[in-house]
Amino acid sequence: MRHNDSTHRLSSPATVAGDPTGRFERLYAEAERGEADVPWDLDRPHSLVGEWTDRTRPVGSGRRAVVVGCGFGRDAEHLAGLGFATVAFDISPTAIRAARERHPGSPVRYETADLLDPPSGWLDGFDLVLESMNVQALPVELRRRAIPAAGRLVAPGGTLLVIAAGRREDQEVDGPPWPLTWAEVDAFAAGRLFPVRVEEILAADGGIRWRAEFRRDG
């Protein structure tokens, strides 16, 4: 089986409907065996994350960050390099094992965890929460739970940064992924979170991307 065929099979609607989160572990396990490619396996942080940190120059020293759905750790290593005490988690144990192996001696704490049921000690615990391109991979019923779940990790005075592919409200898509509408991005402003800046960015492929920054009341 070709690598692209394997990735496509694990993202088919039938697979997603039957096991919307377990398919990620299967993808990483097949990649570990050389039977699949992980499309987001890059050696640099997401460009929209890198641009945001270049622009805002967040002070990491003495502050905690968490990366949701960290995969092999590219964004987590970037934030750790800025001085954040960084936790990075993924629902896939294979991804976490690979991240630890790829970054020996890293200060990042890589953990297997589920955004929908995180350790209680993580709630309200992070000065910077990064959710990049994960929620859009979930079917609608899980997206509705995952969006507020990301915000519950933000500490008082902290920031939630959301990166996602975007679509118009009337645009139908056959996911996964399901690019987020403006309303879905706006829904991250739940509880005591409020939007600071929401950017609609034209991507090279002609689609749009969201980069949204939210702050929690102190």
Automatic annotation (TrEMBL):
<dbReference type="InterPro" id="IPR041698">
    <property type="entry name" value="Methyltransf_25"/>
</dbReference>
<dbReference type="Pfam" id="PF13649">
    <property type="entry name" value="Methyltransf_25"/>
</dbReference>
<dbReference type="GO" id="GO:0032259">
    <property type="term" value="P:methylation"/>
</dbReference>
<feature type="domain" description="Methyltransferase">
    <location>
        <begin position="68"/>
        <end position="158"/>
    </location>
</feature>
<protein>
    <submittedName>
        <fullName>Methyltransferase domain-containing protein</fullName>
    </submittedName>
</protein>
<keyword id="KW-0808">Transferase</keyword>
<dbReference type="InterPro" id="IPR008854">
    <property type="entry name" value="TPMT"/>
</dbReference>
<keyword id="KW-0949">S-adenosyl-L-methionine</keyword>
<feature type="region of interest" description="Disordered">
    <location>
        <begin position="1"/>
        <end position="23"/>
    </location>
</feature>
<dbReference type="InterPro" id="IPR029063">
    <property type="entry name" value="SAM-dependent_MTases_sf"/>
</dbReference>
<keyword id="KW-0489">Methyltransferase</keyword>
<dbReference type="GO" id="GO:0008757">
    <property type="term" value="F:S-adenosylmethionine-dependent methyltransferase activity"/>
</dbReference>
